[in-house]
Amino acid sequence: MNDKSLIYISIFKRKGGEGLNTKVINNNNKNCYIHLLNELRENEKPLIVYYKNTLNYFILTNFRIINCYSGNQCIINLNDIIEVQLALKEEFNDRVMDKEKFTRLKIKTKSNDYFILNLEEGKPYQGLYQVLHFIVMNN
Questions:
Q1: 97 vs 111: CA distance, rounded Å
Q2: Could you tell me which residues come within 8 angstroms of residue 123 by beta carbon, excluding any fewer than 6 positions away?
Q3: E strands of the chain, at which residues?
Q4: Secondary structure percentages of the chain, helix, strand, coil, to 5
Q5: N- or C-end of the chain: fewer Cβ atoms within 10 A?
Q6: 68 CB neighbour count, 10 Å cutoff
Q7: Does residue 85 register a pLDDT over 70?
């Protein structure tokens, strides 16, 4: 798989950006997330992390997404993602009507499985949506 890490980070920064709990991983902040990064494979690079607490986090790496919501973890290989969309049903069910307040994206994989990603609202959400859309378009 071609490493598109720099492209992912560039899209994230250009179309959205960091937030209070969502950061691009670099040498200066990597140690803050070491407990999460222990799960990564040998050649896997962490790119962007949303960390609310130990039960709610999201990690985008050069190979996978690791998403944990209320302690339930799912791992999605980037090359398996075939569709990304706003999780409108989930947002509307929680009476979230303002798109600037959206926090969830719905991912579909090649095996027709659906996953809900929980992210930080605002710029981080917008940036990650665009990164995932780029991944879908290039799979």
A1: 31
A2: 16, 17, 18, 19
A3: 22-24, 46-53, 56-61, 64-69, 72-77, 81-86, 104-109, 114-118
A4: 35, 35, 35
A5: N
A6: 21
A7: yes
